[in-house]
Amino acid sequence: VLSGKGGVGKSTFSALLAHGLAADETKQVALLDIDICGPSIPKMMGLEGEQVHQSGSGWSPVYVEENLGVMSVGFLLSSPDDAVIWRGPKKNGLIKQFLRDVDWGEVDYLIVDTPPGTSDEHLSIVQYLSAAHIDGAVIVTTPQEVSLQDVRKEINFCRKVKLPIIGVVENMSGFVCPKCKNESQIFPPTTGGAEKMCQNMNVSLLGKVPLDPQIGKSCDRGQSFLAEAPESPATLSYRNIIQRVQEYCEQHQLQEEKIM
């Protein structure tokens, strides 16, 4: 899960994608947080204060459900307020360790939540997972041009490193007032929003998620917004997007099997 821009909702999307995929109990889902300087996944998944345990087969992920395991640098800090002040090589070493030394078991989906940008962490994860044939990247943006400007760079990054793009999610896309039901554009799409950008750059738009204050509250409480607000328009939008991601991954797997 990528975006050139910070604050567009990558971690929120990663957390809800993990919850959505894990709703199918036959699937094993892993969520890896490689945002080393700002790990917010432990908080969002209700796992703050949890510790990682070492066993003979490596580090054990922290489990939210039996079929949903999580790993983050947040579990290795003595306090959630500790700053991680590392240069590139140390970050790369930790990402390699998260992939090599964590006993993930057999997983159907590995979701990777990344920091903003196109630098060390992104290059490392693409390089280390290249042999595993990554299904692709979901790119998250908000509607305004300041965000789209950075997201175009992210799309070009994916093309340069030959990382397939599953599609783009436009987050915080309009806000429907719960009282008067009028829709306001909090982040006006002055240049046509994600839809126009996707047409221009020939990538799929997976969907638009409206702003819902309940999403932020659920994240702060470490609860799944999809379970807490099943009737919200944002939940319906998320469910459609998650289904499209699932379908894309299944198609990709079939193609890989044919090639092999």
Automatic annotation (TrEMBL):
InterPro entries for the chain: Mrp-like_CS, Mrp/NBP35_ATP-bd, P-loop_NTPase, YlxH/NBP35
Key word Coiled coil present: no
Protein name per its UniProtKB record: NUBP1 factor
Organism: Sylvia atricapilla
HAMAP family: Mrp_NBP35
GO annotation, biological process: iron-sulfur cluster assembly
Superkingdom assignment: Eukaryota
Reported function: Component of the cytosolic iron-sulfur (Fe/S) protein assembly (CIA) machinery. Required for maturation of extramitochondrial Fe-S proteins. The NUBP1-NUBP2 heterotetramer forms a Fe-S scaffold complex, mediating the de novo assembly of an Fe-S cluster and its transfer to target apoproteins. Implicated in the regulation of centrosome duplication. Negatively regulates cilium formation and structure.
Cellular compartments annotated: Cytoplasm; Nucleus
Gene Ontology terms for molecular function: 4 iron, 4 sulfur cluster binding; ATP binding; ATP-dependent FeS chaperone activity; metal ion binding
Cellular component GO terms held in the UniProt record: cytosol; nucleus
UniProt keyword terms in alphabetical order: 4Fe-4S, ATP-binding, Cytoplasm, Iron, Iron-sulfur, Metal-binding, Nucleotide-binding
Classification of source organism: Eukaryota, Metazoa, Chordata, Craniata, Vertebrata
PANTHER family given in the database record: CYTOSOLIC FE-S CLUSTER ASSEMBLY FACTOR NUBP1 (PTHR23264:SF35), NUCLEOTIDE-BINDING PROTEIN NBP35 YEAST -RELATED (PTHR23264)
